[in-house]
Amino acid sequence: MRNQPARRVAIVGGLRIPFCRSHTAYRHCSNQEMLTAVLRALVEKFALAGQTLGDAAFGAVLKHSRDWNLARESVLSSGLSAQTPAFDLQRACGTSLSAAVLIATKISTGLIDSGLAGGTDTVSDLAIVYPDAYRNILLESARGRSIGEKLRPWLALRPRHFKPEFPGVVEPRTKLSMGESMEITAKEWQLTREDQDQLALESHQKAARAYEEGHYDDLVIDFQGVSRDNNIRADTSLEQLARLKPVFDRSEAGTMTAGNSTPLTDGASAALLASEDWAQARKLPVLAYLTYAKVAAVDFVNGEGLLMAPAYAVSEMLADAELSLQDFDFYEIHEAFAAQTLATLKAWESAAFCRERLGRSTSLGAIDRHKLNVKGGSIAIGHPFAATGTRILASLAKLLHQKGSGRGLISICTAGGMGVTAILEAP
To answer: Is residue 56 part of a domain?
Structure first.
């Protein structure tokens, strides 16, 4: 936009609060309280008190109408200068990664020099609404000018109007939940229960080991008396996972359980991005560079799996970057369900899928599974919808910084048949 060459975008670092199963440790916390805690910690960690950043982008998938300006209100409580602008966005589970890509684009094009990206979500503090018929009575009464006009609508009030409507994860066009949709995809790709449970087990084992090794010491802050994610089950086993019953298809054909799916989770995360000059002038670290990103969508109503869009986005992103799927040291594939991760990997290995759906002459091939979600994935860590993207971004940037070379791939599926992906490279 300034007719200048694109600038490299540095990931300075990121933080999050521990992710907790909904209705547990954060059952009385709001989205703003969780996000503000993360932002205050970032401001303290990187000595940003009173400073003005170029922009900030945050979002939440589930939020109250009072949170219409969630991002700005959180920034105003963060310790940053009140002159730091902020805006809300939402792309389901890809929200915070989308926020990071938008901030990175502004930095790359010279619009800003620094910015924050992140997300927060809580299922414990749901916005509970009442039926439209009750809302219509309230609105009609409010529109009345006389006492009679204000009272008349209330004659239609019935007990059924007080039955609350809770937010759901059902796709409006298919009337299927995300889990029900993924169960269909699992059958299409012939994914076994055993393979899904194995991936879930590895997710817990890797996450537990990462905490023991101290990987999360400078990535996770204490909040509400919690110091680590409370869904990680270091002592789980294949035998325990195998005892769980399917929850989305309760017949003998069902393979997806609470154990190989992500739990409903509360939490928040954020990351600081900047130009190299801005970071260097403040003697801040450059952990990694955000070099490529892609978003894609699929027609999940007429044939493709609801959560298969990342398979398409990664293919297009690799073409942009002129890389192969094997040119990575780390793969961070969001584990919405073990089945989603496995279906994506299987699709990339399929010559037919890559030829007919991705327009490639050959398959993308297999990845080295030892490089997959090496510090645990969403099944173990948890998945506050809007917070997962920058949780992954910060952890992957740290891994690349520690390695001192190489690159990592991020792949996140979202509701609505979309996928958000990115490539990070070491300095």
So the answer is: no
Bridge partner residues of 178 (DSSP): none
Alpha helices by DSSP H, 10-164: 31-45, 70-76, 95-108, 132-143, 147-151
Element (H, E) at 13: strand 9-16
Any catalytic annotation for residue 161? no
Q: Quick: pLDDT tens for 302-352.
A: 999 999 999 999 999 999 999 999 999 999 999 999 999 999 999 999 999
**pLDDT by residue (tens digit) across 154-205?**
999 999 999 998 877 799 999 999 999 999 999 999 999 999 999 999 999 9
The SS3 call for residue 124 is: coil
Residues 42/270, Cβ–Cβ less than 8 Å: yes
Q: Do 157 and 184 share a structural domain?
A: no
Kindly name the residue from 20, 29, 354, 413 that is annotated as catalytic.
Answer: 413
Options 204, 215, 334, 383, the catalytic residue: 383
Number of domains the chain is built from: 2
29: annotated active-site residue: no
